[in-house]
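Customer escalation, tier 2.

The customer says the design service returned an amino acid string that "doesn't look like it belongs to this structure." They asked us to rerun it and document both sides in this ticket. The original structure tokens are below, unchanged.
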């Protein structure tokens, strides 16, 4: 008999009448745009205020998507031709795509046993052209931010934290997204909290905030909802990536639920892991801070590629749908991104790969570019942890995993 295993989509399981009422309030006011309308719009402002308090950041900016947050932050940080941006081998296509969209060059960094950026390899990958480091808190767990920030500080390189998959997570008691110069979050349906599609930037740097604001809007700031001249170095070309009031309404409710969502996933994950402790041939990914794990995925490490392939297939057959060997995890693995491997240009001019400013940045992105990561990917299996599991579902999942691994 197959498991009755829920879909992931953590925040979606927590939608209720509170989100209903918030959305209806926007519709009844007739103010779907965040800066003006038939009534006074308030939802995005309220969400940003809640975000400032939740993360302990001085500035928060709602956007239309996590991808928009990446592009906007990198623009604020002056990424462009002649720049290299370091990203881990385990990522999401949007992160590397944002770099290319800005005509800069992505540089791959190995991951360590935590499946996040390896600080030792990071230092080796820095060149005189390195503009930015983007640690990604992948699959719910924080990176080793002490070591990464030490490298960044030593080499004088800015840091943008990609927290899309770790919203509500922390490192040594401090929220992810607050270590680097800027932090970004995605509010897409797969994420710990959701408004369907949305993004967020946080920073303590007022200059970067003004630049991000201008870049996400119309190249200027706003006063009383109307466009106004920004500080001189924040006069940019805007891209219309504003968050809508409808998304702000849902996000504002979800952020209040985020601690409970994360706690439920974290506790379910811990209980399942405890039931699997001592299973022959099974290990778990290293956690840089177990207390800060946001909990949406359990990563199993098997002894060989063959065992991982068999175990993943048996788990799916048992009803644990969406289980994946990480090597097969689509556009989360650098060598599975055809546009990156093929260095597909933005236009027929061949940019960014052919730009003279990037002439010294010659990198390959095919399998083998990060061999230590590649080997780990073959043996690692990713199990989503839904946010409203029952005790019976947790026990059944542990039994199915154990049977799949040992059979």
């Amino acid at each position: 008999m197959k498991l009755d295993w829920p879909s992931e989509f953590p925040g979606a399981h927590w939608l209720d009448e509170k989100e209903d009422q918030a959305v209806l309030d926007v519709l009844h006011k007739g103010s779907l745009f965040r800066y003006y309308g038939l009534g006074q719009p308030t939802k995005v402002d309220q969400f940003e205020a809640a975000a400032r308090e939740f993360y302990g950041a001085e500035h928060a900016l709602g956007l239309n998507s996590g991808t928009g947050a990446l592009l906007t932050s990198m623009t604020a940080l002056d990424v462009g031709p002649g720049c290299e941006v370091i990203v881990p081998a385990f990522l999401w296509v949007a992160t590397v795509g944002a770099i290319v969209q800005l005509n800069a060059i992505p540089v791959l960094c190995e991951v360590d046993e935590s499946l996040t950026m390896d600080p030792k390899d990071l230092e080796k990958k820095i060149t005189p052209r390195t503009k930015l480091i983007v640690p990604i808190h992948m699959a719910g767990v924080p990176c080793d931010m002490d070591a990464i920030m030490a490298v960044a500080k030593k080499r004088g390189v800015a840091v943008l934290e990609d927290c899309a998959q770790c919203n509500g997570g922390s490192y040594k008691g401090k929220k992810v997204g607050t270590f680097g110069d800027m932090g970004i979050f995605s509010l897409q349906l797969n994420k710990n909290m959701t408004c369907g599609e949305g993004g967020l930037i946080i920073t303590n740097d007022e200059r970067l905030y003004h630049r991000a604001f201008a870049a996400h809007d119309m190249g200027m700031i706003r006063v009383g909802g109307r466009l106004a001249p920004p500080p001189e170095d924040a006069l940019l070309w805007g891209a219309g990536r504003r968050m809508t009031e409808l998304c702000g309404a849902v996000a504002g409710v979800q952020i209040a639920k985020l601690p409970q969502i994360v706690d439920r996933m974290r506790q379910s994950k811990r209980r399942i892991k405890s039931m699997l402790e001592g299973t022959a041939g099974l290990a778990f990914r290293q956690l840089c801070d177990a207390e800060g794990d946001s909990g949406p995925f359990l990563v199993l490490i098997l002894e060989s590629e063959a065992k991982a392939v068999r175990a993943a297939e048996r788990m799916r057959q048992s009803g644990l749908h969406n289980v994946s060997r990480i090597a097969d995890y689509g556009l989360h693995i650098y060598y599975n991104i055809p546009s990156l491997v093929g260095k597909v240009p933005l236009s027929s001019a061949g940019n960014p790969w052919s730009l003279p400013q990037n002439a010294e940045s010659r990198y390959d992105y095919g399998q083998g570019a990060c061999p230590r990561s590649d080997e780990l990917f073959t043996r690692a299996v990713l199990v989503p942890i839904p946010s409203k599991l029952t005790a019976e579902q947790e026990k059944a999942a542990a039994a199915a995993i154990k049977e799949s691994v040992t059979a």
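Tier 2 assessment: The sequence is consistent with the input. Residues 245-276 form the longest helix (32 residues). The two ends are 17 Å apart (CA to CA). Sent an explanation to the customer and offered a walkthrough call.
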